[in-house]
Structure formats: structure tokens, C-alpha cells
Amino acid sequence: MRRMWLLFCQVVTVALALVFVITTLKPGWLTRPANTPQWVPIIESVPEKPGASTAPGSYSAAANRALPAVVPITTSKEVSSPFANDPLFRHFFGEGAASSRSTGLGSGVIVSANGFILTNNHVIEQADDIEVALPDGRTLPASIVGRDPESDLAVLRIKAEHLQPITFGRTDNMKVGDVVLAIGNPFGVGQTVTMGIVSALGRSHLGINTFENFIQTDAAINPGNSGGALVDASGNLIGINSAIYSRSGGSLGIGFAIPVSLARSVMEQIIQTGSVTRGWIGIEVRELNREQVKELSLPNVAGVLVTGVVNGSPADAGGIAPGDILQAIGKEPITDAQRMLETIATLKPGTRTQVLVRRGDKTLRPQIMIGRRPLPERE
Description:
20% of the residues lie in helices and 32% in strands.
């Protein structure tokens, strides 16, 4: 027994000595760095048959699965009167009339049990105060974790635990004609579910966002639905409702949602770093058509025409010049300006990429060091 006790004491002594040496020479091995990115557990979708536990033709199971994760967002902002600096106006109407508060409505999607909420950037970008109404009746203030104006996405956080987050679906198997549900808070009337189908995929060139790859749906989307969830027939998130095509301000059956693949990528970067990092080379381009090819005496090849190069940019350093035709970036062929923008954005700053350029009757393959896309200026 005494021998075992001595052996135990020796083991404890050696262990304490080892811990002392590590904490002295390599403290980082035992402590988590302060800037370690936050990790948010994402609930993946589990395939199930729509309507399996409900009446034929009913999507109540899908709606009930997603409803607790979609929340109304109310924003407010102080607005100064145009006569705020007029002494006569202040004399007759008082100091309080010099400003007022404007309010806005939108929706958001709970993506984690510890309070992260995904929404549209345009819902919260002008707000001084943001409040989120939870299904249990609580109304909590929200802070902005980060936002990405170029994709019109933002991440909020509220101080709450044990929330019911949405399950993330997949868009790679989605087809035109699939049933979808749009969930949000239209016109502030309260949580509302509308049904429709996927009308089109990959919609771009709409002039809504810088980066566009929209899901088009005829599920009714109205003001207040922005930032809400577009879910599949099983209740899994497949998109963030973002915009409508309308001449009257109401739904005309043409709505657009940001696909969950893009939303998830942006969300994870914002949660980890507070912003989104994209590649950039510093060129301006325009698309070619037959008339331009003939007018400018350009070779009849696919690509985009470089019309400008930013001084000191990666493209400038790589020898690209106005008048060149950019045909490929890496192994990706470039057919239009949107394709070029999206391809460059996915590249990691600091890496080298070969581009294919046509200059007159010559083909060039310069190596370009990818830079970081500048953040858009706040208005």
C-alpha cells in the first residue's frame, strides 16, 4: 500500500511539473486565443417526405417546423427635420420638433440556439435601434454582428439562449417547380406563411445587389417579408426573402430570395470575422456583342472587354490594359461581367491565379496576385 502511495505521488509530481513547463514555455497550448473565431453549430436538414404526417396536400408540418425560427424585426432611426437649424422654427414648434423617429419592419431567421439571426442588410442598415420579437412574447434588443451590403445580408445577435434555430437545406438539388413556403411579417400584420413554387433559379443582372444568384418564386412576398425564410416542403431553409418585382409596392408573384448556399457562406464569415472577404483585381469591364466587336474591330471571341484598370491594382501589376479581352480566370471561362465578378470574388486574397487575355491577335496568360476587394463605402 505504501509503495502504491509513493508511485501515485511521483505521478502527480511529474504531471504538475509538466503543466508548469507548458504554461511557462507554451501557454498557448493550454489557452484559447482571444481572437479565435466563434463557432456556431448549424443544424443540417434531414430529408423527409413532405406531408408524411399531415393530410394530403397540406404543408402544415413544414410550416410548424420553420415558424419558431422566423422572427419579426422592428427598427427605428432618428430623423432630423430640414428646418432643425432654423431659429424661427424652433421658436414656434420647440426643440422637440427638430427631430422625430422613423420606424421600419422586416423579418429575420434564427440560425443558432444562442442568438444569431440572419436577415437582409437593407432591413437594418439605417437603424439606430433594432428589436426582435420572439415567439414566446419577449422583445429583445439586437446588436449588429456584421453586414454585407454587396449580397444584402446581415447577422444580428440577441442575448438569449435555448432558441429554436432553423434547419439548413440544400439548393443544389432544387428544381424549377418545387413547392416552397415564404415566411415573414408582411406589412407588420404578424407572422404569415405563403405558398408557391420555384419559378426560376440563378437569376442575375437584376441590378438589386452586386452579387446576384436569386431564387425566383411566386410565393407572395410583400414589404416586411424581407429577411424572412424561404423553406422547402420539409421546412428546411433554402433562401432568405430579399426583394420583389412590383409597380405598386405589393406582390405581383415575382419574388427573389438569396439562396442558402450564398447566405450561409456570408453568415459564417461575418460571425467569424465581422465582415466578408472577397477577391479583387481592379478592372472595369463591359460585355461584348456583335455590334461592339465590329465597331471596335475586335476579334470575334468570347469574353469581356476591359475598359479600365485601377492604378496600382493587381491587374495593373499583372500587365492587363484597357482594350484587352478577358477570357478566363484560372480554369473558369468568363462569358459576362457578372460571371467575372463572382469568379474573382471566390478567390482568396494573396494567391496567384493565371488569367487568359486576348490582346489583338495575341494570347497572353499573365499571373495575377489576387487582392482583397475594398469594402463598399457607407452612405
